[in-house]
């Protein structure tokens, strides 16, 4: 049986690193998320960000993670390393902490569902200063909506 180069390319694992963040000015307050996907060489694959209106910081954090995971799936990523500066979200994803707030349960379920679609995934907590690309997107969106 002969295997073509094209079929080998189709079976190649696409790896990416996702940094996601969310924030609100006030809790609740004007909120936004940002997420940045990098390839294995550190090149930016995609940036996503959005203003959420009035929301809590936790809603913004979960929304950033979900948007980043959806972007990765759209790009065909099958191996993803996720980095978040929200220790709470990381611990809730791992099952170490329960999601108690009813409005966060659907966001948690959506994120878990998206993560299951990747053959390989790993989620880890990073210090805020190591998540500056996603944080920058959050603040750009919030600054653009300030005073509106």
| Total separate domains | 1
> How much is the radius of gyration in Å?
16 Å
Helix and strand run? HEEEHEHHEH
The largest beta-sheet arranges its strands as 3-2-1-4-5
Structural class, please?
A: alpha/beta
Share in β-strands: 25-35%
CATH homologous superfamily title: Ribonuclease H-like superfamily/Ribonuclease H
**How many DSSP H or I helices?**
5
What is the arithmetic mean of pLDDT?
A: 92
Helix percent band: 25-40%
End-to-end CA span: 64 Å
Describe it for me?
With 148 residues, the chain is an alpha/beta fold. It has a single domain (13-142), classed as 2-Layer Sandwich (Nucleotidyltransferase, domain 5), CATH 3.30.420. It contains five helices and five strands. A five-stranded mixed beta sheet has the order 3-2-1-4-5, with helices on both faces. Helix 2 (57-74) packs parallel to helix 4.
Q: TL;DR?
A:
This protein is of the alpha/beta class.
List the helices and strands and how they pair.
Blueprint: H1 5-10, E1 15-24, E2 29-38, E3 44-55, H2 57-74, E4 79-84, H3 87-94, H4 105-116, E5 120-125, H5 132-145
Parallel strand pairs: 1-4, 4-5
Antiparallel strand pairs: 1-2, 2-3
Structural descriptors:
about 150 residues; Nucleotidyltransferase, domain 5; alpha/beta
């Amino acid at each position: 049986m002969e295997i073509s180069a094209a079929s080998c390319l189709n079976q190649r694992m696409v790896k990416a690193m996702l940094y996601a963040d969310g924030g609100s000015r006030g809790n609740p307050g004007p909120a936004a998320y940002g997420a940045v996907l990098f390839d294995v060489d550190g090149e930016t694959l995609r940036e996503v960000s959005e203003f959420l209106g009035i929301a809590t910081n936790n809603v913004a954090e979960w929304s950033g993670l979900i948007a980043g995971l959806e972007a990765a799936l759209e790009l065909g990523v099958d191996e993803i390393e996720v980095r978040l500066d929200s220790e709470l979200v990381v611990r809730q994803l791992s099952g170490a902490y329960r999601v108690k707030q009813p409005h966060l349960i659907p966001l948690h379920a959506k994120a878990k569902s998206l993560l299951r679609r990747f053959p390989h995934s790993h989620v880890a907590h990073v210090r805020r200063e190591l998540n500056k690309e996603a944080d920058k997107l959050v603040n750009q969106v919030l600054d653009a909506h300030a005073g509106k």
